[in-house]
Design brief:
The chain is α/β, with parallel strands linked by helices. Helix 2 (101-114) packs parallel to helix 3 (131-144). It has helices at 20-36, 101-114, 131-144; strands spanning 2-8, 11-17, 72-77, 80-85, 88-93, 120-125, 147-151. It contains 3 helices and 7 strands.
């Protein structure tokens, strides 16, 4: 058992602490925690081929993602447009202080020819961009055959 010794004015005090109730309380709390915990089920990942068994002949070959999974993003910045097609980046700078909508439309039409199944273009807009510029870029996207999707947060 635990005990406390303190000496004061010539006499010693020896007090023993009873820790049994504390241990009982902790065992009840741990039991309650284990019973009330939400247990997650560990799921198994199924792989195409295993080292232990041969590959299933009915299983299809792995295919690359379809072309419609390519990310098409347009950032509207204070310096002009920046067009992202997958990992390719194409800046379209301003011409004489105005956004180059003709070059943007030409690029978007080329992309539509390469990826005809691609339906939308994601647009990220800086906070300092005027509303008319955003509407103009959305109109260009619609003329090129894409539906514009506005993103929150602006360009990085």
């Amino acid at each position: 058992m635990a005990h406390i010794e303190s000496g004061g004015k010539g006499r010693s005090t020896n007090t023993e602490l009873n820790l049994v109730p504390v241990i009982d309380l902790m065992s009840v709390l741990i039991t309650f925690l284990l019973i009330s915990a939400v247990w997650t089920q560990v799921s198994m990942i199924q792989l195409g081929a295993s080292f232990a068994s041969p590959r299933d002949p009915e299983q299809k070959e792995l295919k690359p993602p379809p072309l419609e999974d390519v990310v098409l993003k347009l950032e509207i910045r204070g310096t002009g447009y920046v067009l992202f097609v997958g990992k390719d980046v194409r800046p379209i700078p301003m011409v004489k202080g105005a956004y180059d909508n003709e070059a943007l439309e030409a690029d978007l039409k080329k992309i539509k020819q390469l990826y005809p199944d691609k339906a939308g273009v994601k647009m990220a807009i800086s906070d300092d961009i005027l509303y008319e510029v955003v509407v103009g870029a959305m109109d260009v996207g619609l003329r090129a055959g894409f539906s514009p999707e506005l993103l929150t947060g602006g360009p990085n």
